[in-house]
Design brief:
The protein is of the alpha+beta class. Helix content is 23%, strand content 31%. The chain is globular.
């Protein structure tokens, strides 16, 4: 099947500045980041020292490149996130989170950065000051991809077990109770395998699309979480992208083919399945598709075969081929040509994004000068909280048991929220115990110092002479008697 030219024509923005193509691999730190001019295919810049996992590279406000780094030891030993300014020739800003970070995502304005870990934890940082605003256990399995909605009101996360969760940014940025569990708007376990892509539409009907290695792409209502449409493919889908007109969905597969299918969001009430013969297929790559993107010139695809292809969006033929030559390409990004240091266009940006080192762990707000009384008071409050928590847990467990017997889907959500509550309380308790331990250690060191000073005074000649006199005086008195 072949789509007509009029059905797939896009509205191109023919700007004079042009775009630059950014690509990287996860092979080794020495491979780095390659940047090409899309129109000419000429290499523009090479940034060394980068090995980023899938969904681990992004452009922050057209001013910085941010990339999470592969950790060969998994989450053991901490992770790394590197940031390069596009307008300055300098070493990257290196941040080291407490564990390895895989997929990352940022808000449209570049104010907040989110990262997902293999452990299932999610981290939210404020970019300007590097403050870690929130961290919580979002999934039971490794995070695979993350995406913010177009209005930055929700964060969507997908994991290795096919679970998709939608989180409210209002609860994530709750400054009054930073240690509280974030609000889970809704979740889905419809996919039977790992989530490979998440993207949101810019249309008024608030939808997002997910892809999975189970060979399906699903469209969801962002507000209610209702499944709108399902598209089935013969092979696992590894990357997705929306046509600029949002009428077509393109999905890359594990064998290198790219499926183009019609997206009828809002035109039907019930989910439906698109058969294989209804798809237009692009062929050319010899390895699994790892990333897809749309530029003003057409479709861009990256593959494990080490190549990046530019496809004409009308004839669907390859216009240009970029050879990475350093292993499988894991990430793609598009940036304005004027954002680069080598560009002759010194156009001023609307606003300058401030950047700081990302915190490794949340900083306590309590004043440490309050001493042992404050610590003991907090421990007593924790005991009271534990008592109330036990009561709430018992009642919640009873309620969950009743809902499980009724086979209601809300039981799983309540179990998840209860587990997160317990984990957050354990984290707070651990922090307070560590503070008490530090205080006791300092007291013990003071006592040992005083003991050493007393011992030194006892070993002085004056002290020994007085001891001899004290010890000898009773014997002299005995002789006299």
């Amino acid at each position: 099947m072949r789509l007509s030219v009029s059905a797939i024509r896009i509205e191109r923005e023919m700007g004079n500045g042009g775009e630059a193509l950014v690509a990287c691999s996860d092979r080794s730190m020495g491979t780095g980041i390659a940047i090409w001019d899309i129109r000419t295919g000429d290499p523009l810049l090479h940034i060394p020292t980068c090995a980023s996992p899938p969904h681990g590279l992004l452009c922050l406000g057209n001013q910085f490149l941010v990339a999470s780094q592969v950790n060969k030891h998994g989450s053991v030993g901490g992770g790394a996130i590197f940031t390069w300014p596009l307008k300055k020739s300098q070493s990257p800003l290196r941040s080291y989170p407490i564990e390895a970070i895989g997929p990352i995502s940022c808000t449209m304005d570049g104010v907040y950065l989110a990262g997902g870990a293999p452990s299932g934890n999610v981290y939210i940082w404020e970019v300007a000051n590097g403050r870690l605003l929130k961290t919580w256990r979002a999934h039971h399995k490794s995070l695979k991809c993350m995406a913010f909605s177009n209005d930055d009101s929700v964060l969507i996360s997908g994991s290795d077990d096919g679970m998709i969760c939608v989180w409210s940014m209002v609860s994530l940025l709750d400054m009054e109770n930073l240690e509280s569990s974030p609000s889970l708007l809704h979740y889905s376990s419809e996919h039977r395998s790992s989530i490979s892509g998440l993207l949101t539409t810019s249309s008024a009907n608030s939808t997002f699309i997910s892809s999975s290695l189970d060979g399906t792409c699903k469209a969801w209502d962002l507000v209610s979480g209702r499944l709108i449409q399902t598209q089935e493919h013969p092979l696992g889908i590894t990357a997705i992208v929306l046509h600029p007109a949002e009428r077509f969905l393109l999905g890359g597969s594990i064998d290198g083919r790219i499926f183009v299918s019609v997206l009828n969001i809002g035109l039907v009430d019930d989910p439906f399945v698109v058969a294989e013969d209804q798809l237009f297929v692009l062929e050319g790559h010899k390895g699994s598709i790892t990333a897809l993107a749309f530029s003003t010139l057409g479709l861009i695809s990256a593959s494990e075969d080490g190549t990046v292809r530019l496809w004409d969006a009308i004839s669907w033929v390859t216009i240009r081929r970029f050879n990475y030559q350093k292993g499988a390409v894991t990430n793609l990004a598009l940036i304005p040509h004027s954002s680069l240091l080598t560009s002759s266009n010194h156009q001023r940006v609307p606003y300058q994004i401030r950047l700081s080192l990302l915190e490794k762990c949340p900083q306590p707000e309590a004043n440490s000068s309050k001493g042992t009384v404050a610590l003991l008071h907090s421990c007593s409050s924790l005991k009271d909280h534990q008592t109330s928590l036990d009561f709430r847990t018992n009642s919640l467990n009873h309620q969950i048991f009743e809902m499980e017997e009724a086979h209601t889907p809300a039981a799983l959500q309540m179990k998840l929220e209860t587990s997160i509550d317990n984990r957050m309380w354990a984290t707070r308790m651990t922090k307070h115990v560590m503070e008490i331990n530090k205080h006791l250690q300092s007291r013990l060191l003071d006592l040992m110092q005083n003991r050493l000073l007393w011992s030194a005074e006892d070993d002085s000649p004056t002290a020994r002479k007085s001891k001899k006199l004290k010890i000898g005086s009773p014997s002299l008195e005995g002789e006299k008697l």
